[in-house]
């Protein structure tokens, strides 16, 4: 098996790594691949090495809202860690990548048998919850440009390079706003030389500028997650 790239897997103790690694299988994670479906049993726990998973809430009438993102820094299957077996949200690949997965039943068994392992993953879930909390705050208090810049920074954090394969339509869905508003905000970012826009792609040119535009909505959740999973 290739060297582990997922942050959480790399932070496992030797004993815990010996428990989990034999049950991990490498897997490609193509764009739009569904990892979990709300109301359905969680079949696998995924540990992305690359790519980005969107955690979305279905609002009905073909509308969705993004609650958070998962990349190389985290894992899926949070409901299993909390003692459940059914997905509470829908998760799918927003940026294609790869990673590893293991059967949810095996993962749940290990958590029941090993308190330290359970606490390790509980801390990671708490880290994600910090991100989700700031998503709520940003969506309710932030201006569109602040929300957009935060999203781009989070996607950049979970990408291997500076170019994101993201369309204006996709951003409008994730941010829950009209496409025209996203296009206007992106154009301002390009005019400011913070990003470069090419059809279907956004290249990050100046992270510092994006952080400035994001204001107080980017940073605190990342700090909290690093503390909890560090």
What is the topological layout?
Elements: H1 7-11, H2 14-20, E1 25-29, E2 34-36, E3 44-60, E4 63-70, H3 78-81, E5 90-103, H4 104-113, H5 115-141, H6 144-157, E6 163-164, H7 168-175, H8 179-191, E7 195-198, E8 201-204, H9 207-214, H10 220-229
Antiparallel strand pairs: 1-5, 2-5, 3-4, 3-5, 6-8, 7-8
Helix pairs in contact: 4-5, 5-10, 6-9, 7-8
Word description of this protein:
- Helices cover 46% and strands 25% of the residues.
- It is built from ten helices and eight strands.
- The strands form two sheets. Strands 1, 2, 3, 4 and 5 form a five-stranded antiparallel sheet that branches. Strands 6-8-7 form a three-stranded antiparallel sheet.
Summarize the entry for a quick read.
The protein is of the alpha+beta class. The protein has helices at 7-11, 14-20, 78-81, 104-113, 115-141, 144-157, 168-175, 179-191, 207-214, 220-229, and strands at residues 25-29, 34-36, 44-60, 63-70, 90-103, 163-164, 195-198, 201-204.
